[in-house]
Amino acid sequence: MDSRIAYIDDELSFKEALSKLEQSDKLYIDLEFDKNHYRYGFNLCLMQVYDGKTCYLIDPLGSLKIDSIFPILENPEIEKVCFAFGEDIRLLHHIGCQPKNVLDLAVVRTLLNKPTLSLSNSLVEELGLEAQSSQQKSNWFARPLTAEQIQYAAEDVFDLPKLRDVLMAELEKMGRTEWMEQEQQQFESEDWTIGAEPEIVPFKDRKQLTMREWIRYSLLMEYRDYLSSKLNRPSYKVIDKNIFIDFAKNPEKVNRWTTIKRVHPKIRNEKVEAKLKSLLAEAEKTIQDDNIKKDQSSRPPITSEQKMRNAQVRKKIVHAKNNVFLPIKELLKKEYGEHFSNYLLSNRRIVGIVSGNIKLLDYQKQLLNQYKNALNISDSKYF
Questions:
Q1: Which helix (H) or strand (E) holds 352?
Q2: Selection from 260, 240, 243, 248 nearest residue 218 by Cα
Q3: Confidence class of residue 136 from pLDDT cuts 50, 70 and 90?
Q4: In sequence order, what are the residues at sequence separation of 6 or more whose Cβ sits closer than 8 angstroms to the Cβ of residue 263?
Q5: pLDDT of 110 over the 90 cut
Q6: Which of the four pLDDT bands, split at 50, 70 and 90, describes residue 300?
Q7: Does residue 95 contact residue 46 with C-beta atoms inside 8 Å?
Q8: How far apart are CA 149 and CA 135, in angstroms?
Q9: Cβ atoms of residues 48 and 30 within 8 Å
Q10: Average pLDDT for residues 260-287, to the nearest whole number?
Q11: DSSP, residue by residue, 13-39
Q12: Please, which pLDDT band fits residue 259 given cuts at 50, 70 and 90?
């Protein structure tokens, strides 16, 4: 194993590592995690923390009290350098840690009008390094980790110091460091717990089900989630949801439960079959009590007033896009580049701004106002 790597899986070595890490002014971090692929839920499998000398591979799957490192990650005096850290910070918030002073180099690249690339490809482009083979999809729950996994995990942080120096020097040269500071503040203030928990009953499935079927399906899917948590397996590996869609449409098919494929063998038994039948009976009682008609839609009917409001919103968005944002975007593209203009005024962001769901940062408002004035656009209510 590389002499710069220290594998931490006991409390004594963890305590020693923490005493060194808390003295740093910059830490380079990454996480390896599993999100409903090998096990149930959103799970931290490995934490890589590099202080410029030693890469500490901190193993949270044993006896370590991983929250001992939270004060270091939450210390605003220590800069945490990372790359494309969205899901990582979502996981940290999910387990109770809210990092401060996070510098995401992927965002820095965007502000420099660079294309969206993986860390490996960014290192090729910026530093001329060779792309490493990915271990990202390997099983990070497996112990012991392979030599390839250990080296891959460490390589994810070893080159972050050089990458930071190159990108931040370029950002400073272009006078955009304040932009990044504002992006950092917004990044830290977001509610990253959203999206951490799996969607138990996929709402998009509602469009293919009647109201009666949706009531059955919802109860069955909630039970699937319960079984998955008990087995500690991702839901899709426990029961194929299409089986429950079929049961929702044809409840009598539950009688074939013990012979159905695409079901985990530990639950293909009479006890679970009896529970499924009781849930379907519960659904039938709700259907009768609420007088749900046979072909009643599962989606609430839209009133004429709602249709009119929706049409007005769509018209407002189209007008704003064509008359305000797209002309500004063209000027932004000429001066700041295609990648930055697509980031600042993507279709999703334009819709969010017009609908009031996205708040612009100060530097973004200044840019948009600058080009609004240059184009003599009078409509400024969006920024």
A1: helix 347-355
A2: 248
A3: low
A4: 238, 239, 240, 243, 257
A5: yes
A6: confident
A7: no
A8: 6
A9: yes
A10: 97
A11: HHHHHHHHHTT-SEEEEEEEEEESSSS
A12: very high
Q: Residue 93: is its pLDDT beyond 70?
A: yes
Q: How many residues does the chain have?
A: 383
CA 258 to chain centre: 36
- Cα 297 to its chain centre, rounded Å, is 32
Instruction: Write out the two tokens for 251.
Output: 């409840």
**Structure tokens belonging to residue 8:** 């931490």
Query: Do 200 and 222 form a contact (C-beta atoms < 8 A)?
Result: yes
Is residue 280 within 8 Å of residue 247, measured between CB atoms? yes
Phi and psi, residue 258, nearest 5°: -75, -5
How far CA 328 is from CA of 334, 345, 360, 368, in Å, comes to 10, 9, 15, 7
Residues 6+ apart with CB under 8 A from 121: 131
Q: Which two tokens stand for residue 120?
A: 């490996």
Instruction: Report which secondary-structure segment, H or E, holds 109.
Output: helix 105-111
Residue 175: which residues within 8 A CB-CB, separation 6 or more?
A: none
